[in-house]
Amino acid sequence: MKTIIYSSSKLAGAAMMCRIRKTSMKENFRGSKHIRIAALIERGIATFKYTYDFGDNWQLTITVEVVEDRNPALEYPRFIDGECRAPPEDVGGTLGFEEFLKVMSKPQDPKRREFVRWYGGRFDPVDMSVDIVHDRAAKLARRRTLGKASFAKSQNKQH
Hints:
Layout: E1 2-8, E2 17-20, E3 33-36, H1 37-42, E4 47-52, E5 58-69, H2 93-104, H3 112-119, H4 130-158
Antiparallel strand pairs: 1-5, 2-3, 4-5
């Protein structure tokens, strides 16, 4: 089994199962369907488009940087590295995010108080809060490991 390290222009991590849009794939990936990242790599595709949040229409370009052998002592997925804070959920796509950044960077802007209340505090686009992202990825990995173990146990009881 391989570990896939990839980067994204928005996410600190992306799901290992992605909804791929037909406009970003070669002919043999027509239509929107679930495709594993590993299947793309096997076909020589290392960069692809991913639509996150169809309502806000975030168009991401994800690039697979490295594929390494999986370490059985580690839980996956794992957060490796990143930079910059992701836009808040439901900020209104790229235009809404641009307005949000502009308003939040100007203490005297009349909309700032409303935006701070909506967001729940100040927003530093450079501070990624690596510890928080790492903890969330670790919790996800732990749930995944426990889920796989529970499934395997249930399969053994049926036989």
